[in-house]
Specification:
Layout lengths: L4 E3 L9 H5 L5 E3 L5 E3 L3 H4 L5 H5 L5 E3 L15 H10 L13 H10 L12 E6 L2 H16 L6 H11 L11 E8 L10 H16 L3 E4 L1 H9 L1 H4 L8 E10 L21
Length: 269
């Protein structure tokens, strides 16, 4: 990450919004009321780019980026977003076809944006992108499971299901996203929150693209317990697997939202 701010003095209106909004207070005005780093500010900076995002004139650039290359902020339609949240489902039946590459590419682009503690560059995503590769991983997984003499209860369940014609681990999904954490970079206390937040964003965005998703503890457990299977994800040595999500083109279509009981909420006024 290049920690550098550049200000177009002719465009700057000296409003100080970038300074006020800086979450670590690493900016100040110089003698001409142009924003700059405070002494040691570059080391304090977390690279959140709030300063660039909030500038009303696009006068401030972070890391050499052009503010006018950024999309205009758009918080969408709240009713549409609520309907998406209500409509999302866990999919366990997928078509035997690849996730369209253009949709997978959009998902990859989106993964740069979910929030992380301290804006740390701490997550790595391993994506199995084709149905053919998923089938190969599935075969290797079950061959490995069947070669184990004393499997864990979860692995035993997966083996029994497979021998009865049920793929309990991969569900016939055509793609897989595994998120791992670099513990040398992650902010303390965010080791589990950061990857789950990222996958939550992925979950909703993928379903908005018509791609089904499945949070799957069975897949995660097998990956964690069988290092030879986990190695297929090509996770960097410095990273630790945190969670796995399955993706695919849904083989079923849900026509309406479910109806939930109200959440348990304590309102404090």
């Amino acid at each position: 990450m290049i920690k550098r701010i550049t200000v177009d003095a002719g465009m700057c209106i000296h409003c100080g919004m970038c300074i006020h909004d800086c979450i670590v207070q690493c900016l100040e005005f110089d003698a001409d009321k142009i924003p700059r780093y405070v002494e040691g500010g570059k080391d304090m900076c977390v690279g959140c780019q709030h300063c660039m995002a909030i500038c009303p004139k696009g006068a401030l650039s972070f890391g050499g980026r052009n503010p006018y290359m950024s999309d205009l902020a758009d918080y969408g339609n709240s009713e549409d977003l609520l309907r998406l949240i209500k409509s999302r489902r866990s999919f366990r039946f997928f078509k035997e076809q690849d996730v369209p590459p253009e949709k997978l590419s959009k998902i990859v682009d989106m993964l740069a944006y979910p929030p992380k503690g301290g804006n740390a560059d701490s997550l790595h995503f391993s994506i199995v992108a084709t149905a053919e590769k998923m089938r190969a991983i599935g075969k290797f997984t079950y061959d490995t499971i069947n070669a184990i003499e004393s499997p864990s209860p979860v692995v035993e369940l997966c083996r029994n299901c497979y021998n009865n014609g049920i793929d309990f681990i991969y569900r016939g999904a055509a793609a897989l996203v595994a998120v791992s954490v670099d513990n040398s970079k992650v902010i303390a206390g965010c080791e589990n929150a950061d990857p789950i937040i990222a996958l939550s964003y992925l979950d909703l965005y993928a379903q908005s693209l018509g791609i089904g998703t499945l949070w799957t503890d069975a897949t995660l457990t097998v990956m964690k317990e069988l290092p030879e299977v986990r190695a297929l994800l090509e996770i960097p040595d410095e990273c630790e697997l945190n969670y796995v999500m399955l993706l695919g083109v849904p083989a079923v279509k849900y026509r309406r939202t479910v109806q939930r009981e109200p959440a348990h909420v304590t309102m404090i006024r």
